[in-house]
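Reading is simple: each integer encodes one residue's backbone shape. An example follows:

___
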Amino acid sequence: MHRESTSTRPPGPRRRAVLLGAAGAAGAAAGLGLALGPGQPQATARSAGPPALASRGGAQALAPGAPPAPSSAGTTIRTTAAAVGSGGYRQLTEGAGWPRVVRAELGAAGARRADKRTALAAFVQLTDLHIVDVQTPLRSEYFREREGDGWRPQEALSVPGAIALIERVNSLTSGPATGLALGCAVTTGDNTDNNNGLELEWYLTAMSGGRIVPNSGDPRSYEGVQNSGVDRYWHPESRLRDADKALGFPRVDGFLEAAIREVASPGLHLPWYSTVGNHDLLPGGCYAARQPYFAEYAAGDRKLMTLPESIAGPLFDALRAGTDPRGEAFAEMLRTQRHLMRTVTADERRVPFTSQEYVAAHLQERFTGAGPVGHGYTEAHGASGELYYDFALGDTGPGVVGISLDTTDQGGDYRGSLGTAQLRWLEQKLAEHANSYVVVFSHHTSKSMNNTTPDPFRPDDKRHTGAELLEVLLAHRNVVAWVNGHSHRNEITPHGDAKGGLWEVTTASHVDFPQLARVVELADNGDGTLSLFTTLIESAAPYRADGGELGQAGLASLYRELALNAPHSPRRRALSGLETDRNTELLRTR
């Protein structure tokens, strides 16, 4: 591998009514072994793979006199957010861009490949937005001392932060490596944070365009941990010497009022497709949703903001080990610790939603935006609750296909897996698209798909690991990439070898610093190899946050600055990955 110089580049029924009722009146549908074992689907013989696609409709060839005009403007090739100073609370400024690194583990880097290149597909990946209702009783901030992600100082600003990322995507003129027009955007899960009906509405509105009031409970005021008086949380408007102010966090008068003020999203200007993650379908990202106490507590008028370590510790350990998938220990904790809860305003809009309701919301006309209707989901998906599908990847014709998987275990666990029925469907689709290149999308990574506990709602549908999924993908030569998220980390991994392999592209989240998304482009080099280009992008928010500027753009800047300074970030500095995990050209033998 080598670094490419940048010197030549420019730098229940009631629940259903609550979630879908607003559209009903208008007539619309209301984080946390390669061999297959006995009895599991057997990998098919390696397919020959698709032919060269240079003549296929929709591909953009390098015609003489009319080359594409790639531009790195708006990407991390040009600039990145850089911290000012080395200690205490830090601010951000414009820093140097990251170079593009050529990786040749799966194919040779031909000296003249750029001269013969044919661009095939270009799309944007958004992942782990974690649009969060910070006032819901189901938010478990009291885990902060055990896990830094239990509560983040920036999370009250997730909506304006996500909108600033959408604005950045809208500003891109073409693929930064090939110049091909961007065909679509694809989310790879954890679009929401807590299986919350309001979060789902905010996410869909941000993506499709519209106005959002990121508030729940009392319509006039904030009712969460940041004005609770509990000193483990940052209190931006108080003189309280809380844990974060001890680290240098500032006082920001007007912060809480601004955080729940209405904001506006232009919506993505590209067609977009939605992939589901564990935080979308599971309360807390780890508990089976179909337990009545989750809905009762989420919609109710009591919120637990602090919990003794003697209780929080074992509860968190059970969560991480996956030993309490139905949340029975959690329910018992709520029963015994009611005396510690604070009174808040009840709000039925916070109730968890089912996979069927998740699909129904995507199908609402008001959330169509740039399309397509349902964003990959259809009424059939709503009826079955099976959230996986295939689609033409952008507008590049039949030459490149996307396959969106559902790796969430609805039985309850933050770790992923696939059921046998979905795995067999995937094998059928890979065979069906044998003459096309395929990019697979999921929320979980190959390493985080290690939960094989049976789904109690589908007890006969055996669960399969990431290693087993890789076995299937590598058996089909047409699969060029597996794009995912979940880990909140940039990491690019080759699987297989030059005789047959694929690239696993894992992208960091947009809730934890450095808050990134990724442009991915596929090209045929005309020399027997393919190039998969990955280019990271940041939000459109200014790098420097002015604590006194609490307009929508200022809040998005503060979102990034607070994320930089979030406690526990030193152990998470690797989230940006190595240079080989950021802006890359990934070669693969065709």
About this structure: The radius of gyration is 23 Å. The first strand starts at residue 2 and ends at 4. The longest helix spans residues 158-171. Confidence is low (pLDDT under 50) at residues 1-67.
